[in-house]
Amino acid sequence: SVAEKFSLAGSQHPVVGVIGQEVVLPCQLSPPARLSNMEVLWRKIGTEFIPVHEYSDVGPKDQTGEGYQSRTELFPQEFSNGNVSLKLKRLQMTDGGRYHCYVKNLEWSQETTTELQVAAVAPVFIDVLGPQNSGIGLACRSTGWFPKPELQWVGKNLEMEFVTDVTQDTENLYSVVSYITVTEKENSGDISCIVQNGLLEPERQSAIHLTGGIFPQVSPWLIAFLILLALALIGVGACAYLGYTAKRKVSQKKRSEEEA
């Protein structure tokens, strides 16, 4: 029978899509064939089935569900190869979830599911905050990630601790900012800030090269001035002490003469 001859398969592993881009949710009929009077129903699984895209050889060819208008596409030219996959365009955060692929004709029906995980990435920027204590303050920032990203600073001799803050906006997208102070002894080449999440392999990063001239420098004239100031203060202190001692001796001598 037809039911025993054909099978339908989705993806065994979650499909990852990037917000704003497009993704294909696989659904394959095996062995490859073009069934007559075929219907293909793609629905999202929630508390109930949410219509996404429906195709029928009989009646209206293509219909899209609410919220998916102009964002879905099948591959009719691939039906003869058993390919009834769905292309979902301009991905949104709410598109993540499980999708149900259902294929049937008058004699046969079969179904399978595929999970879609939605991710978002964003550019990374490094800002120079200027002199801080004995080094230079840097800030790394990136806005528009999903799921929650991880951030790390990378440098050849980078030993300073950094402070990182992660926030989430009303659209569930994450922003991350991290602060670090780099001292001159740690400056040996580029310093990079790397941001990544667990769903997407490609990481995003930014790098900066700090030259020795950018670090706070103590002027030799300032050092000489501070030394002279210290010597002057010592000299003033010594004179005051000698004056006080001499005055005390005169006072004691005068008191002795009066008592005599």
Structure explained in plain terms:
There is one protein chain. With 260 residues, the chain is α+β, with helices and mostly antiparallel strands. The protein contains 2 helices and 18 strands. Keywords: Disulfide bond, Glycoprotein, Immunoglobulin domain, Membrane, Signal, Transmembrane, Transmembrane helix. It is found in: Membrane.
Q: What would a concise description of this structure say?
A:
With 260 residues, this protein is of the alpha+beta class.
What descriptive keywords fit this protein?
single chain; 260 residues; alpha+beta; Immunoglobulin-like; 3 domains; six-stranded mixed β-sheet; four-stranded antiparallel β-sheet; 2 helices; 17% helix; rod-shaped
Give me the strand/helix succession: HEEEEEEEEEEEEEEEEEEH
Q: What CATH architecture of the largest domain do you see?
A: Sandwich
Structural class: alpha+beta
Beta-strand percent range? 35-45%
Task: Provide the spatial order of strands within the biggest beta sheet.
Answer: 2-11-10-5-6-7
The overall average pLDDT, rounded, is 83
Domains, number: 3
CATH homologous superfamily identity of the largest domain: Immunoglobulins
Shape: rod-shaped
Task: Name the CATH class of the largest domain.
Answer: Mainly Beta
Care to count the β-strands?
A: 18
* Residue runs with pLDDT of under 50 for 5 or more positions: none
CATH topology descriptor of the largest domain: Immunoglobulin-like
- The oligomeric state of the chains shown is single chain
Keywords: Disulfide bond, Glycoprotein, Immunoglobulin domain, Membrane, Signal, Transmembrane, Transmembrane helix
Organism: Pelodiscus sinensis
GO biological process, one term: regulation of leukocyte cell-cell adhesion
Main location: membrane
